[in-house]
Design goal:
446 residues; globular; mainly alpha
Length: 446
Amino acid sequence: MDGTLVGLIAFSSVIGLLAVRVPIAFALVGVATVGSFVMFAFRTGTFMGERAIRATSSLVFSNSFDLIHSYDLSMIPLFIALGHIAYRADITTRIYYAAKVWLVGIPGGVAMASVVGCGGFSAITGSSIACASTMGRICSPEMLRMGYDKRLATASVAAGGTLGSLIPPSVLFIIYGIFTETSISKLFLAGVLPGILSLFGFLLVIYLWVRHDPAAAPPFDGHITRADRLQAAIKAWPAITLFVIIVGGIYGGFFTATEAAAICVSAAVFIGFAQRKLDIKGLLDSLRETCIQTSSIFLIAAAAKIFVAFIALTGVAPAIVEFVTAADLSSFYLLLAISIIYLILGMFLDPIGIMVLTLPLMIPLVETYGFDLIWFGVVIIKLLEIGLITPPVGLNVFVIANVVGKEVSSETIFAGILRFLAIDVIVLILIIAFPLISLLIPGSMS
């Protein structure tokens, strides 16, 4: 049986199952199991069911076992726990309040503070959805009460929430690093400058929006003193400390990304109890939510590992590489095609699902062209980040719509998000055109 044909049918089947809302893990492992059975059963040209059952079982269980026992995978529950603990210890939200005190006097300052708060939250949690959900509950209702334009009050937080995909630590970077066997520490550092560039791009959008339409952001009528600003900055020290431990520790070679996660979790618990912002109940609730979220990610990752093994069995990846090589596409057109594919998939699927579905085909292809996998990882994450706010199914938009309720419709949020999408595309072009933006910090890593 033609393995390439089986592989292409498998991809089509997975996309079809996802279209009817079958969970990504079940779709991947189901298709991979059936496809592997077919490949093994007809390997000799005649059907051999008993041999296929044994071989398929071995492929399924060995690959899932190897993944779950991966050392790098242990940082996912650690960083997820860090996010939940830091939120309950009031560490993440202080960044927003500090930014609001410093920026509230600027036109659109609260919206800018929301973006900065999302960036600070992302620098600890590593989850875009969690960032949008948490910051949406804090920032959007406050801006709506102040009379901000509904589009600005919601779209700024939806866009700011995507920073969790790029600013380290990022769960997507961890999954990418595991499946491509690249350094997760270098991936984290590679996301720093593109993440900061995206953040300042969002701030520029807000500035230009309010300058063009001053009524979109009513001016602040209170009074903020220098002492207020100093006090707010001091209160934000725990979040800054955790970020410095993660990025500074990894960059300086003091510890690995996993060790940085473990140290930061311990530090967050200590700070939370020391400042009496965290109690035993809050800690246990954080751990419970961590277990639920981690189980979901691990299930998807294990299913993806099985699917990757099945794709390798079919030989569809080398066939696609051969086809593209024969087509003699330039690097520009290849990257353009990849970007279009990811942007289209991002309109309908979640980022983890897109990544685990496409990486088995994309990585052999880009390796053939000699692309740096660290840089390519940043490009992929940026594309997935754009997908979180791309209509018709921008996950962050629907998260914000759920937070604000009937007061603002998802259509209104999408209307406001278009400005942020434009700056995202510009940042993506800069990342592709100038790989140094991504590779400068990891390239200088000691």
